[in-house]
Amino acid sequence: MAKSFGWTSANNIISFALLLPFSVAVAEPGNLTESQTPDAQLHHIPEPVEKVIVHGPLAKKYEVAFRLNPFYLRGDFNGDGKIDVAVLVKQRSTEKLGVAIVHGGTSKVTILGAGTAIGNGGDDFQWMDAWQVYSKTRVASGGDGKNAPHLRGDALLVGKSEAASALIYWNGKRYVWLQQGD
């Protein structure tokens, strides 16, 4: 014969009291200064991105995209000694994906993709499924194995798994595309 265990009123009160703090902590709203979008409340958005893209002048045209993990990278991309932030963005009007680079210590932003073409990457980085910071101390080679660029700052290594990749780096005047393979 199977035993049945019933809950008494005391057990219910104790269980409720133990679970109440957990439910309150879960139900508490996120940091509303990060962003008002549900996706953004689940992610920490760096302050420079918050100021310029989420709540700043680019908010009407772009939004932060969370389709890759990580959705942002830090590095000194323009070689000025200040930490910059590269973040995935989506152009609101076309839903094209790209990268916004927010230069440290300024409000200057460069958009790559998301409606602005660069090299073989085009104006929509929907194809990109991996990216990482490529340190300026590493030696890069061109797609032909020659002509290694002089990196003034860190570069972005962007790619499509088991397909092509490219370096996006600052040449002193603008960001350029260096195809690594196809």
Compact overview of the structure:
The chain has 182 residues and is an alpha+beta fold.
What's the count of strands? 9
Q: Could you give the order of the helices and strands?
A: HHHEEEEEEEEE
Q: Give a short account of the largest sheet.
A: 5 strands, antiparallel
Structural class: alpha+beta
Question: Judging from the principal axes of the Cα atoms, what is the shape?
Answer: globular
Runs in which pLDDT lies below 50 for 5 or more consecutive residues are 1-36
Rg, nearest Å = 23 Å
**What amount of the residues lies in strands?**
25-35%
What is the overall number of helices? Answer: 3
Helix content: 10-25%
Mean pLDDT: 79
Ends distance: 69 Å
Written description of the protein model:
With 182 residues, the chain is α+β, with helices and mostly antiparallel strands. It has 3 helices and 9 strands, in the order αααβββββββββ. The chain has helices at 9-27, 38-41, 47-54; strands at residues 62-64, 72-75, 84-91, 97-102, 109-113, 130-134, 155-159, 165-170, 175-181. Strands 1, 2, 3, 4 and 5 form a 5-stranded antiparallel sheet that branches. The chain has a 4-stranded antiparallel sheet with strand order 6-7-8-9, with no helix packed on it. A hairpin with a 5-residue loop joins strand 3 (84-91) and strand 4 (97-102). It is globular. The relative contact order is 0.12.
